């Protein structure tokens, strides 16, 4: 036994130099590959084997991406390079270069991925990964979801959910003796209920909603975790949670089809979608043709999950930043309150109508400025399917992940861009939404520009109108409380802690 142990030890010692040499060779090849891809771009001179800068990104995502932006700005190139988990990355600060990426989403150029490891995380049926005519056809089918009539239906639902949660916040504040509490998680809960109810409301049981919340929480945790797809790891639990969410949404689509085929009136987003979808399916069947593309329940469930992902955390981010900005600008609060009171009051007995919301021009300008000032999804990752000449002097290599920064774009072009100033979107004389349209990239650009941006802005404007009308609020300001942190979209560092009390004599009920 001792002899065998000694022999094994000697074998290891004999092999050690070869192992060290192999590791050194791997390190050298990886560094050479990184520098070849990096070319003239600013970036770290050496990268950790395989992992690269992923530990820094996960430990301090705000600092990591701020560092990328600083490199891109300081170099004057508008670009920076780095290395994450075996993948070469390019950070894009320059707005026009970001537009070049957004305008070239196609098989032989850039592929939108939504997350560095999104192809594993989001599932097979995903709007994000589609191209060309197939993508155009699906967006055509989605269009009925966001007509004025549909948005009006959603607005009433949104307001009921918002008010029910504001009531809970006020009750919590009163129960805790008026102490400040962070509203990020309450905002997230409110948005999850809003999304569920607006998208598939009539088709989710109480038990399904509870499982929905558990699975979506698993998904959120997995977004910020190491991409280890093994049992027991957060990434694997996130993938399993997404699969269950898609199955639930698939059943909602199936039930909606049956209800719309029976002639019922639409009550939620999937109803507006299926109302047109079943008509096309039935027309195809009558003509002896197979069902049109993208009308399968499983596919629709996947697409509904895309909507949920797009609406959920981005909206949570915007609501928190809206409260933060309002607290810092009492003049803005006064103007919003005055504008809302001209067309609606808490004791009116009904929700804000589509016409009344349309009349709130300044409130809508505040919503747009919140999104410009703190774009929720700061980065829109794409992968280069083929080498792509981004500038005269730099070609993005195949397989590189590029990160156009819509956050950095928001602070380019606009006068006094670091100031929160809704007047830039309200003043007819300034019209900065037109003059600097190419820098307002919070909803993306090109073929994959966010199809639900009107819904998102309506949700934010409705929250603003209701919040300032029924609540008196004050931020619990501490050092660094407004520093952005990634959760996974950016939110205030303290979770947006506020003191709340009821403002109106009678809380709205409708």
Structure characterization notes:
The protein is of the alpha+beta class. Helix content is 56%, strand content 9%. The chain contains 19 helices and twelve strands. The strands form four sheets. It has a five-stranded mixed β-sheet with strand order 1-2-8-5-3. Helix 13 packs across helix 19. The protein is globular. The model has no long low-confidence stretch (mean pLDDT 91).
Gist of the model:
This protein is α+β, with helices and mostly antiparallel strands. The chain is built from 19 helices and 12 strands. 56% of the residues lie in helices and 9% in strands.
Global structural class? alpha+beta
Major sheet attributes: 5 strands, mixed
Number of strands: 12
Q: What share of the residues does DSSP label as strand, in percent?
A: 5-15%
In terms of per-residue confidence, which ranges show pLDDT below 50 for 5 or more consecutive residues? Answer: none
What overall form do the CA principal axes indicate? globular
Overall residue-averaged pLDDT value: 91
Largest sheet: spatial strand order: 1-2-8-5-3
């Amino acid at each position: 036994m001792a002899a065998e142990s000694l022999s094994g030890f000697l074998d290891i010692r004999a092999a050690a130099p070869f192992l060290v040499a192999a590791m050194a060779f791997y390190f050298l090849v990886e560094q050479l590959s990184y520098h070849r891809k990096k070319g003239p771009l600013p970036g770290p001179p050496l990268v950790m084997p395989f992992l690269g800068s992923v530990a820094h990104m996960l430990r301090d995502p705000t600092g990591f991406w701020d560092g990328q932006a600083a490199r891109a700005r300081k170099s004057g190139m508008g670009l920076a390079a780095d290395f994450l988990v075996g993948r070469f990355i390019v950070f894009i600060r320059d707005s026009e270069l970001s537009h070049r990426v957004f305008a070239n989403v196609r098989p032989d150029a850039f592929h939108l991925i939504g997350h560095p490891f999104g192809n594993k995380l989001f599932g097979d049926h995903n709007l994000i990964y589609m191209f060309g005519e197939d993508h155009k056809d699906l967006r055509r089918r989605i269009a009925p979801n966001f007509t004025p009539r549909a948005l009006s239906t959603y607005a009433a639902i949104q307001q009921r959910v918002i008010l029910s949660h504001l009531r809970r916040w006020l009750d919590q504040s009163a129960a805790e003796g008026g102490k400040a509490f962070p509203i990020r998680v309450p905002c997230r809960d409110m948005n999850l209920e809003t999304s569920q109810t607006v998208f598939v409301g009539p088709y989710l049981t109480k038990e399904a909603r509870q499982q929905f919340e558990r699975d979506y929480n698993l998904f959120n945790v997995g977004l910020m975790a190491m991409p280890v797809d093994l049992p027991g790891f957060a990434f694997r639990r996130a993938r399993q949670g997404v699969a269950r969410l898609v199955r639930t949404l698939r059943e909602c689509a199936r039930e909606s089809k049956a209800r719309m085929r029976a002639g019922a009136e639409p009550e939620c987003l999937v109803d507006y979608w299926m109302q047109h979808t079943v008509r096309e399916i039935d027309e195809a069947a009558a003509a002896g043709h197979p069902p049109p593309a993208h009308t399968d329940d499983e596919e629709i469930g996947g697409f509904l999950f895309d909507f949920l992902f797009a609406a959920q955390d981005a909206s949570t981010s915007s609501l928190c930043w809206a409260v933060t900005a309002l607290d810092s600008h009492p003049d803005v609060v006064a103007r919003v309150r005055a504008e809302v009171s001209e067309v609606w009051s808490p004791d009116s007995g009904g929700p804000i109508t589509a016409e009344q919301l349309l009349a709130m021009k300044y409130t809508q300008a505040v919503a747009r400025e919140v999104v410009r000032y703190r774009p929720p999804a700061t980065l829109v990752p794409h992968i280069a399917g083929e080498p792509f000449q981004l500038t005269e002097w730099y070609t993005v290599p195949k397989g590189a992940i590029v990160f156009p920064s819509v956050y950095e774009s928001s602070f380019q072009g606009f006068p006094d861009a670091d100031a929160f100033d809704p007047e830039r979107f309200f003043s007819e004389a300034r019209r900065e939404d037109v003059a600097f349209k190419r820098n307002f990239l919070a909803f993306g650009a090109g073929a994959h520009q966010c199809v639900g941006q009107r819904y998102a802005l309506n949700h934010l404007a409705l929250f603003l109108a209701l919040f300032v009308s029924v609540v008196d609020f004050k931020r619990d300001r501490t050092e660094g409380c407004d520093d952005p942190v990634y959760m996974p979209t950016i939110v205030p560092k303290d979770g947006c802690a506020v003191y709340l009390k009821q403002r109106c004599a009678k809380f709205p009920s409708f």
